[in-house]
Amino acid sequence: MSHSYYNKQWQEAQAALVDLLQQENPPEPPKPERDRLAAFQLLATMYIKYIQIFRKLEQSYDQVVHPQKRRVLRHCLDGVMGRIVELKHEMMNLEFSEYHYFDDVLSDLKLTPNDVEIPVPKYFINERAKNLKEREKLLGQVLAKIGPQDGDKEKEEIRMPWEQAIRIIQIHERARQGRLRAKFMREIRQQEDREKQIQTRGPPTLDPDVAAMRIQKIWKGFAQRRRTKKERDEEMIFIGMAPPPLPTNTKNLPQTFAVKTEELRRKAQDVHEHEFQQALVNIRENIVQNEGPDLKEGMMDQIRQWFIECRDASGKFPEYPDEDDGGSAMIFKEKDPAELEKELSEKDDGKAKGKKGKKDKKDKKDKKKDKKGKKGKKGDDDEEEEGWKMAPSNFVPAINDASDTYKGVWATRDETENFPQKHDSELIKEEKRKEVETEIRLQVDELMRAELTNLKAAVDREKKGKKGKKSGKKKKKKKGKKSGKKGKKGKKKEKDLTPDRTIEDLYEELVTQGIIIRCPQIKLSDYEGEYSYLGTTLRQANIEPMPSMSDVRRLVTEFGILPLGSPAVHESSPLTKSMLLAGPRGTGKKMLVHAMCTELGANLFDLSPANLAGKYPGKDGLKMLMHLIYKVGRALQPSVFYIGDCEKMFKKKIPKTDPTDPKRLKKELPKSLKTIKSEDRLMLVGTTRCPFEAEMKPLMSCYQRIVLIPRPDYASRNLLWRKLILKNGGQITGSLDVSSLSKVTDGYTPGHIVTAVQQVLTDRRVAQLSKKPLQAVEFVAPLARLDPIYKDEEESFKTWYGKTPMGKKRAKAAQADEDDLGGGKDKKGKKGKKGKKGKKGKKKK
Ligand SMILES: Nc1ncnc2c1ncn2[C@@H]1O[C@H](COP(=O)(O)OP(=O)(O)OP(=O)(O)O)[C@@H](O)[C@H]1O
User: Does the predicted model carry a pTM greater than 0.90?
Assistant: First the structure.
């Protein structure tokens, strides 16, 4: 794609943002929404629109090569990303559920589920590529030093004496030779049989014409059948009933060219960025050298003039404005010196107080407003209007900012001369000029302050001037002291158990201990799964649907990937410190953790009980372990702490035969989670196959968010079969009935499907595919050996989820809604409902 394509994408995204921002900043504060459904619809619509904008911005940011445009884009992208996360949390607080269904909104907006897939910004990885490579290298070196690990050893550990090994080789070699000889013998025998038959039959008696006709008949029939089949296949492809054949040569495909172009553009980004950084330094130096001295002299003259004018007007020299008030820059806003001095004196005495008073009042008013909003949400205050109100956003100001910059600078800029899309020197000059001016003003202020005191001392040696100076100095000193103390206190709280060791050293130790592990490179898009179109319909019928696999993907992106990937989003969005992935065996829990780490370029700390067994023993060991993982995790963030089978930590009884001591971290972990702050991009991710075995309270206090992972539904199974067969070298032809296969594999998880596909599609079978196409029956035998997940097991997950705090809240809210509806129909005279109804009626009027 071209520069103009990505500029257009950006432009479209900005146009959509303008509409949304009008909704976000209404001229009058909106009235609280009483209808929960309407509030959710409003949120969901905004959420989906933001996702569409996000997709466009992400694509533009990935490909735009102009360094200054990229900065504005990044600001906007982070803002939109943060707003999406915020809206998700708003929806969660409103609906009391992690999962939300938007099929009705999608059909209203005429969108497909693919249009609202949340992409993972590529800059998470691309902009840290160098660091990640170095870390990977270090990890590789350490792993090579410690040799193959336990898991690998088990695989390799087939040991046998020489004699036995030679015997096995001999057996196989003799078998091979035997088979070859048998094949020869068979061919010789067949040849002999044929010769014997010819001898017994004698010379052919058939008329050559008749024989030729017979051959022609057979050939023509065969050729026509072949042609008809080909035409039928082509027609099926034409009407979209069969997939087109895969191209044999992928090199000349347009997709391949597109990928190459994208790579080239990313390289151009680096080059342009480098040039931009150089230009920043050069232009600044130029301004300092060429314009600096004139600027400095001009300022000094102006200030001296001001001294004299003041003295002429009021008979004494003025007070020099403080650095905090903006120094001499403040003087030139007001031109009249008498007025300025008046203002200054008033500021000292009364105005400052007045302003403070006003500010305080304003703040109080704002706070009151906020409180009102919150109360409205809770519905506690009878005087306030009940209902839901959108919480103030931390990201809308950033989006506003970026939007204004776009409008002010880029929307109308003439770029006909800038075809390669390099930096714009004029913009840099404007920016740097301001920067240099403020810097020079600081220097000038210092000089002029000294000059003023000298002047004052020389002309009239009164005490006022000196007092002002002292008080100024004292103030500064005091401030300095205070900040110093605070700093020290903050540091004292965190004891560093390893003060003299470097992070690389600690990283190496954790890798050697097997706590930091190498994560398989899996993209989130590899986690296949279809969208469910029934979510809203089921919820409206008061049936809680099981989430679809595409919902799982979305949730992992929103809770884990987006906040951990961007520091700006993590700092201001609602904090998610931990997440529990709960689902039956083989549903891809580990795969999701690996996908998270791959997409983020995050370190993976394996804190599973089985992995910790025997490592860092005792209380001190545990303290050290926690210290190490947090220190290294923070220094090399983002980091993911993974705990497999995490329900074991909160089980009531642990069997004595269990050597892993899963309860070791039970106390330390929740404590340490409290130390995670908005600037620490760390997350605890637990996976469990049987969350119902754990005690609910402690489990929920440790894991903030729950992601329930379903068995795949028909649509997802269909997709999984197709994708996994192709991935393992198979081919989807007309003779493979994927639909029936998907139907009969209800209850089988992706893990089962992967196993079955790998067992069927051996190298030998893949080689035979051209002659013997794959058939659905072949998968039956491997599947029969696997135990599917029965409906009861899935139900037990649902019931368990109903008992979690979120599930309980949801049930309560549903009950309240039902009561409301019931009250409306039957008990019109009852108190509460009557009140509400009355209000609603009034509103409508
Ligand atoms: N949605 C999916 N798309 C493609 N492959 C999947 C999907 N889900 C799981 N798999 C594959 O299934 C296999 C099992 O997945 P994984 O080990 O992550 O499951 P799990 O839930 O952690 O299982 P367990 O609870 O038994 O440890 C892996 O090979 C994984 O790649």
Answer: no
